[in-house]
Amino acid sequence: MNDRGGQSGRFGKPRTRISADDAEAQRAANAAAPKIPDLLSRIGDLFKPHRTALILTIVLVLVGAALTVLPPLLTQRAFDEGLFPVNGDGPNMPVLVELVSLMVLLFIASAALGVWQTYLTASVGNSVMGALRVRLFSHLQRMELGFFTRTKTGVIQSRLQNDVGGVAGVLTNTISSVLGNTVTVAAAFVSMLVLSWQLTLVAVILMPILVIAQRRVGQVRAKIAARTQESLSEMTAITQETLSVSGILLSKSFTRQNAEIERYSSENRTQIRLQVQQQMSGQWFFAMVQIFLAIIPAVVYLVAAWLILQEVPVTAGTIVAFTTVQARLMWPLLGLMRVALDLQTSSALFARIFEYLDLKPSISDKPGATDVDPSRLGEVAFEEVLFRYPDTPDDAPATLKGVSFRIEPGQFAAFVGPSGAGKTTISYLIPRLHDVSGGRVLFAGDDVRDLRGEDLVRHIGIVSQETYLFHASIAENLRYANPEATDADLERAARAANIHETIASFPDGYDTVVGERGYRLSGGEKQRIAIARVLLKDPAVLILDEATSALDSISERVVQQALEEAKRGRTTIAIAHRLSTIVDADVVFVVDAGRIVESGTHDELLERGGVYARLYEQQARLSA
Q: Would you state the pLDDT for residue 15?
């Protein structure tokens, strides 16, 4: 789902232009399950790693199903040979005790097999579900940055949690339910035929109609399930947006809490309606099935009486055994129909999961990709680079147009220019967060598309304007760059980043939990922790993306001191808004409208009196 499309109409009057019916129609259109080729075979492939457990489960199911058929047959013998023997001398107690004891043993064995079978199916089902969740998460980790800028985080979370969780029951219960109920139903039909083929005809005459009705109900439920998951995605997105620290601050700042509550409540009402529809769809069908199966014994009695009048041999034991088998047939038959409905319903969820798994990352390593040449670390060059974002209209101008430059190892290079000129895009192309549309980006002398992505990024450190810290301790956030770092390594990096004394002043020191996105720290403190984290990575190339533009002048000076330490001994590329921070750069590139229009040192560019000189003069005048 495109995040821009999802955001439109969120605030103000434009939202009221869409009627409730139109909104529901649009939701239904959006929620249509994607068409996935060979969906059933791909679902089956999920179970291949568990062949041994599945084979054992199948054996247990077959044995258990066979055991369920024996008690009715023993019941017939108990009536005809134990209670009412042919000789008419009264109950035959030895035979009756033997048959009842055998029935009790069968029930105990069946129960034990059921427990074992439940353990196996639960283990396999949950293992498959867990593997599917990790597989989807891993695949999403490999997607390019552009995918996440186009898609709501809440929608991604919903696919990972709600959709995978929605198929949990099917993964856990389908194998045993289908096999067990199928075998039980088949064995019950055989037993019924053995007892009386005439009575069996009465019991099965309406089955084809029930199967047709079940398929129709399943189709309806699948559509409702898709719409339900779409609604859950929207609810997850709303929760992720509004209950984050940033979202709460925004809603409180503009007193929009009631509006957010109404937005969530509206989606919640939709979710309730869809859940009720999903629960109720097919209930009349199952009610009719239960009525049909419940009245069969009464009909059997009438037919049995008619057969006796026609002098067809039907014993009392046969009638009791037949009705017992038929009664036991009801729940397995209902179970099969419910599983069929669940499979039809879950197919929409599986389709949504496989839709994400089938996404192809637009950026991936090419066959034969190589590691970075260590002898040329720190070299960065652009050769006639053209770039436009994938979702940009064809008639829109490119973001970068024929950009060329070269940065030598150890140089401090700065990119400046007006907002929207393309500076940050340049910084994203170096670690290959985006791919160029034309030209080449060279790192250590090689085209970045010829390098292994993991090895390329290993040599690049990024400190951005918006520092992201996890809701964890300072030490854990620092070790994100180097999990093997010792406490001494952390302190050394923190001292270099001019943040150790501040950390030491906290009651819990490096164990201080920073809160979501580091909101318990000031902007300057977060930036210095981010610098310390990069120092622990020790990259050959450091990219500073407007790392101090959001700070006040005091914090900026402190962070700037930390950056001076971070820049030492490595190539540094700074995307700068405040020109005062890059006056000592070895080379300054001035970017305007996607092109490099000037380059040189700070003093050289001032002497030329061009774009850079005008920008510097404007900032000096504003700060005076």
A: 36
- Condensed to tens digits (0 to 9), the pLDDT of residues 114-123 reads 888 888 877 8
SS3 string, 498-514, reads CCHHHHHHCCCHHHCEC
Rounded to a whole number of angstroms, the CA Rg of the chain reads: 35
Confidence (pLDDT) at 188 = 72
Task: Residue 554: count other Cβ atoms within 10 Å of its Cβ.
Answer: 9
Residue with tokens 């030598």: 408
- Of 579, 583, 548, 541, the closest CA to residue 563 belongs to 548
What does the pLDDT look like over 526-550, one tens digit per residue?
A: 888 888 888 888 899 999 887 665 5
> What is the layout of strands, in order, in the sheet containing 446-447?
400-407, 380-387, 438-443, 446-447
Query: Which residue numbers in the chain have pLDDT < 50?
Result: 1-31
| Integer CA distances (angstroms), 255 to 251, 252, 259, 453, in order | 6, 5, 9, 45
Q: How would you list the strands of the sheet with 587-592, edge to edge?
A: 460-464, 541-545, 571-575, 412-416, 587-592, 595-600
Residue 85 is encoded by which pair of tokens?
Answer: 């023997």
Cα 421 from Cα 325, distance rounded (Å): 79
| Matching residue, tokens 């774009």 | 611
Token pair belonging to 272: 């309730």
Alpha carbon 617 to its chain centroid, in Å, reads 50
Q: Which domains, and CATH codes, for the chain?
A: 40-357 (1.20.1560.10), 374-459+539-623 (3.40.50.300), 470-526 (no CATH)
Q: How far apart are CA 485 and CA 4, in angstroms?
A: 41
What is the Cα–Cα distance from 222 to 213, expressed in whole angstroms? 15
pLDDT at 16: 35
Structure tokens at 15: 């939202």
Q: Please give the Cα distance from 581 to 588 (Å, whole number).
A: 12
Give Cα 205 distance to the centre of its chain. Answer: 46
Percent of the chain with pLDDT over 90: 18
Cα angle at 275 between 272 and 279, to 5 degrees? 140
CA 397 vs CA 176, 191, 387, 595: distances in Å: 59, 77, 10, 12
As to burial, measured by CB atoms within 10 angstroms (0-12 exposed, 13-18 middle, 19+ buried), residue 125 is: buried
- Residue 596: C-alpha distances to residues 238, 397, 399, 424, 600 (Å): 41, 16, 12, 13, 11
Residue that has been written with the tokens 């599945």 in this structure: 54
CB 602 within 8 A of CB 585: yes
pTM: 0.67
